Amino acid sequence: MINKIQQETFLREFFRNTDPMESLNDGDPRYVRLYHDPDHDEADPVKALRNVVDWSSEQSAQLFSGFRGTGKSTELRRLAKILNDVPRDESSYAVFFCDMQQHMNMTTAVEISDFLISMAGAFGEQVQADLGEKVLDTSYYTRAVEFLTRTKVTDLAFDPGVGLKANLKDDPTVRARVQRHLSGHLAALTREVHEHMHDVVQKVRKATGKKQVVLILDSIEQVSGVGADAQRVFDSVVELFRGQADKLRVPHLHVVYTVPPWLDYKAPGVKGLYSGAFQLPCVRVRNKDGTPNAEGVTSMRAVVKRRGDWEDLLGDDPALLDTLVLASGGYLRDLLRLVQGALRAGRYTTLPLSDAQRHRVVVNLQNDMRKLSTRDQQVLAEVHASKSAKFDDDQYVPSLSRLFDNHLVLNYRNGEEWIDAHPLLWEILPAPKPKTTPDPT
Length: 441
Known about the structure:
It is a single chain. This protein is an alpha/beta fold. The chain has three domains: 4-19 and 284-369; 38-279, Rossmann fold (3-Layer(aba) Sandwich), CATH 3.40.50; 374-428. The chain has 17 helices and seven strands. It has helices spanning 4-16, 45-55, 72-84, 112-131, 140-150, 164-170, 172-182, 186-208, 230-243, 263-266, 294-305, 310-314, 318-328, 332-345, 355-369, 374-386, 397-405; strands at 60-65, 93-99, 212-218, 254-259, 276-279, 409-414, 416-421. It has a five-stranded parallel beta sheet, with helices on both faces. The longest helix has 23 residues, at 186-208. The protein starts with a helix and ends in a 20-residue tail after the last strand. The relative contact order is 0.13.
């Protein structure tokens, strides 16, 4: 039995190792290769993304979807490392990883004009950060202001001391004016952005000796509206990736865009507009019929074991950890939230936790999820029953998008792709509405 000081140290270190918001690098000792088994090669989205880059001539545009907290950023960093490590005598790559949260407002509608500017600006800034400012002599944000001036913008009226980047991200008035002005100059803007990015690619090749350039744009999937504006924001994301796909294919550059997991359901056929489209699913801790999947449970146990000694926290029976694993639905962030809840519960008691304390940890997370409207509950019931997102009535689509965005609908892959309601909600779901059939007369 450990003493109080040892227990405090144990709980603190374990807690710090289970930060649900932290993404890991491939070399981090806490990282678990969920797709390392040869039997799962076909399910590894990183290998699928790399295949497209390797087999395309010198440009490609791919979509990569996954929930926040499923390890998406971690897997993209693994892709960057794999490509960066390709020997120079092969088709070598210079890879630039950009977090678009630094360049975009994540709660307002996005249009192709401001997105193109933000994408080019992010690319240039990351090149400067990784290779040094001597590679590029100016930021694209500066060049974009010059473009706006050449096209005779008259009502931009922003503080040049703050800069276009900050104004586009944080000032909705400036952003709306830029969007309005550029709506009549979209073809010219697209040419301008593509030419600039090609110029950057050439400079990167010269500076690095690498043959091809890859740009990874992370966090775009986090664009999500709130309240009355939610539907307009969701629609803007669909328009960006479906309606403007041609403008997102940048000549001479491989680009990976992160997109929300609901995009394919709101925009059927969008995958066919890109060189590739892949998804990072939740870990399949249950089969489609709801029975536990031993392989997925074992993988999630390994995730927790890399973070700390769960046996000292919960007890030495694996079934005690499996209760948390199954409650998470295979969603990594929820598993870490459950473990942190158990750690908090252990601070003022003797370890391991009692049955009642472990149960309360699950109930606490469950209570956080249950503030649902009647319509949301009905949508979740339909998803749980059908394991799909096919609805007879389009009125449910906004609700489905929001439920995806709040991680209350989870996606899985087992040969086929399927979805389900979060398991902590199953017991409160109503019976799905019966399907109506047309009157034969």
